[in-house]
Amino acid sequence: MRLWGRFCLVLSARAVLALILGMTFWALAPLVLGWTTTTVMTGSMQPAIAPGDLVVSRPMSSGDLRSGLVLLGWDPDHPGRLRLHRIVRRDGDALITKGDANPTADSSPLHSSEVIGVGYMRVPYVGTPILLASTGDFGKLIPLLAATGLLVWLALLPAVRPDQQGGGPSSTTLGHTARGRATPSDRPASGLHRGVEPTSEHKSRRYLLATAGALSFALIALPGAAFASSFSASVRSSGWFAAARARPADALTCRNNANGTATVSWSYSAERPLDFDVLVDGRGDLTRVGPDTREFDVKPNSPFSFGRTSVIRIRTNLTRGWTATTASSVQVTTTTFLWFGVARCT
Amino acid sequence: MHAPTPKLARLGTLAAISLALLGAGVLVSTASYSAFSATTSNPTNNWTAGTVALTNNLPNSAAFTAVNLKPGSAGSNCIVVTSNGSLPAAVKLYATTASQTNSLGSWINLHVTQGTGGGNGTCNGFAALSDSASYNNTLDAFIDNSTNFSNGFGDWVTSGGASEPRTYRISYDVASNAPSSAMGGTVKLDFTWEAQNQ
Asked: What ipTM goes with this model?
């Protein structure tokens, strides 16, 4: 029974090792085609792609890139790192991507010059040692490597012990060693008379060993083409800034007074300005009055020429520089003779 | 019952390896199909390899509502951003969904300082962190040049693990030489903080 136990154990180990090597083959073979294999480091594409997966990406012309494809590209947010996220939409040359497990799309899009390829094959689990090594998780890496070493050792054991030649003829495909059984007591001193079985099994063990060695080396030497996918989360708050606007005065009117002066008045109910300017078209500032003033007396001894008509407007100075002038105006005509004169609304 | 023979061992090995290689092909093609044939991305919260998460102290409310601005107007607010992710992450601040009229943004100066304390609509208790980056430029420059994670502002790297807060004091002032063409102008934007794992 122990013999069958050993037989099954060794064959199972060989099967598991072959499974692992087979999967690794699918991850590495496309490299000869110029495709790219990367190790997935984070879970931002879960559940579709998990950390420890190897993803094989194939090149694709930029015209064929469409939403739903998983893109491999150089991450603009982290120089030198790769991003492996799904395309959400295209804006011309900009490809908006999003990790399946991220709540929102990536804030920076990928451009076609940054694209390496499109995810095509996923080889699960096989990249786990690379992931553990690059995150420095030796607590998990060392047991994993030990278990792998144990598996390889088991697979390379002879399934049938050389001194347990059981019933039934042995045959050889090699033909250069002696046929027939060897009795348990007949242990040859040299290898020449060893039984057929150990030699052919020895050869298949050598094949296994060579393949395992080659693929392990290739796996380790896999260009640190690691990474893929960043988790992201964001939060936002809005901002609203609105500048004030100077308001012109309104209801601009003129009234004549009994003493020969004219009064210009206006109303204003907006924000209290710095001051008001009384403007005369073509002659600029007549005078400046305070922010609460609403009228101004035009006197005949103001420096007006004889019979000159002045077009008067009011300018609101919200700040020195932010101003608004009334669109409407009033007219005052001043008639001065020597020291006497009259100002009249016209 | 016969003991296992060498011939059986060879045949068994061949069969086992063939089946295993076939199995590897099936495994890879199944995994590939399910990973790459989906056309939509479905957000899930079942992350097993660590997470990144951010909140601030004003969910759904405004960081700033500054109206009736004139040359010389100024104001500030302190916003506390908290990281609850389990992975160390870099946090950047940038502007999204921004628009302005009358070029008002080029006449507003924006200053962002990082520190601790304050929040809840006030900067009482805010203490700036020495040796941390600060932003000093016009609101216009912020809107144009800080637009995503790669060109965003900030040098905060969270340590991952426990809940970790940082306060951003954002203050503005309107240039005293802002021309009258800026009157009535507006600027609208979202201040967005994003964390990405290192």
From this structure: 0.79
